Every structure is written in C-alpha cells, then in structure tokens.
Amino acid sequence: MATSGPNVYTVTAKVDATGKYAHCSYTNSGGSSAKSPLPAPSAVAQFNQVLPSASGLQLVGAMVTNTTTPPTTSFVPASITEGKLSQVSISVPNPSGLPQATRGVVLVFSMLNSSGVPALYPSSDPQIQNPGT
C-alpha cells in the first residue's frame, strides 16, 4: 500500500475526555493538517498510523457506510505491520449519474485497559467525499 498521495492521511488519536471515543487529528501526505470533509479524488482513501502510538491507541480498522440504496455498513480491517504502521484503505465509490458519493467512515482503535483486556474506541466521522474525476 502507498503511504503518500493526495488521498492518504496520517491519523493521530487519543482517548477523549469521556473515555469513550478516539479524538483524531489528520495530516495529508504533505504534512499539512487536514479537516473534514477529507477529499478523496480517486476511488480510495487511506489512513495510516505510525506504531507504536504515544497514546496507546492502535488503528484496527474502520466501519464504513456506503451510498447504496439501502445504505450498507461493513468493517474494513487494518493491515498492520508489527510495531511500524497500521493502514486502512477504504473504497469511495462514485456511482454514475451522481456528482459525488459520500461515505460515512468511523475509524476503530484498540487499547488494552488496566485489566489487560482490549477496549475499542470509535472516532468521530471524518466524512470522506469523492467528487469524481
């Protein structure tokens, strides 16, 4: 998988103040801060996290909702290189006849709790948009 490009984002996450969610920040391949909606000009958006994360959170995948009728949701697992990089690539369709397709994306992180049991932390939706080419 590529680690740079116009639709590749590095994600940094930490547990939010409620202890229930992963608060995420994103940078694009040029190192600039990226804000929602994140543009995905091609058919794939990719999220990378350098491991080990200082916060202890590890990107394990993403829940993705597409724009079909009716909408469907699926889990996309991360490809993880032990101790180096966690990557999730997400297809962003652009159905014919529509100017853009939007998918809801919730990144899923894991961290061991104080008892050594993995706990999952969802991100807020970074909203990926594909305006077409």
Automatic annotation (TrEMBL):
This is Uncharacterized protein. The lineage of its organism: Bacteria, Pseudomonadati, Pseudomonadota, Betaproteobacteria, Burkholderiales.
